[in-house]
């Protein structure tokens, strides 16, 4: 690459870092790419770090030593995220979204790229300090959130199927009880989709009693995998707390009350905003 002006180099370095989150990049990579001294690269990174911090884009961590470099960690400032989720709660509070069984129609939100990107950034921020190998979700509505989250964590996505697909080869299947309907259902995961003892972040679009998530946890035991965290876009209040199967999770929005007769919904920010940091 030909030698760049410093202004151009700063733009190019910023783009390079943003597209490679959670990746350790040696200073020599930048020095060789831009034909610049390491001291100049260090000065550039200090400027980028300051902008990232002031604009709430995340952290730029410096790792010292022979194998050191810099690593970009995406972060979502809590106040900015709260304002975003409050807008989402207002949208979810529209009476026409009420579905039978205390569910809400959220498919339109899951299909909006700008919303999914912000949701993914929030989950990536919540679990940034966990050691993770993959993001897992169950088909189909959780897929957009899982991919948005994985893009900020820079790790693969694994999709649990409702039934075994012949195109995925041999698979592990289990039966599980849906927490809300109490129906016995099946989910499966291709053996090649997940390494043994993988560290997994489970992401789902909606949780009521948590039966589907518990099913994924049980499925992961067959792979000797470890669940490092659970993220839920929208959770619904369960009248009987004893029916709640999952207790350790992060939610972004919470349905506090649905009055189907009066067509009224109360949606509040989730427990993510009760977390420290």
Rg = 21 Å
The coarse silhouette is globular
Q: How many independent structural domains? A: 2
Strand content: 25-35%
Helix content: 25-40%
Order of helices and strands: HHHEEHEEHHEHEEEEHEEE
> Which blocks of ≥5 consecutive residues have pLDDT under 50?
none
Biggest sheet record: 6 strands, mixed
What is the level-2 CATH architecture name of the largest domain?
A: 3-Layer(aba) Sandwich
Instruction: Please list the strands of the largest sheet in the order they lie side by side.
Output: 6-5-9-10-11-12
Give average pLDDT, whole number. Answer: 91
Q: What is the fold named in CATH at topology level of the largest domain?
A: Rossmann fold
Family: Belongs to the purine/pyrimidine phosphoribosyltransferase family. PurR subfamily.
Keywords: DNA-binding, Transcription, Transcription regulation
GO molecular function: DNA binding
Domain Bacterial purine repressor N-terminal: 5-74
How would the blueprint of this fold be written?
Elements: H1 6-18, H2 27-34, H3 38-54, E1 58-63, E2 69-74, H4 78-92, E3 98-99, E4 103-104, H5 107-110, H6 113-126, E5 134-138, H7 143-153, E6 157-160, E7 171-177, E8 184-190, E9 199-207, H8 211-221, E10 226-236, E11 250-259, E12 264-269
Parallel strand pairs: 5-6, 5-9, 9-10, 10-11
Antiparallel strand pairs: 1-2, 3-4, 7-8, 11-12
Protein name: Pur operon repressor
Keywords: DNA-binding, Transcription, Transcription regulation
Family: Belongs to the purine/pyrimidine phosphoribosyltransferase family. PurR subfamily.
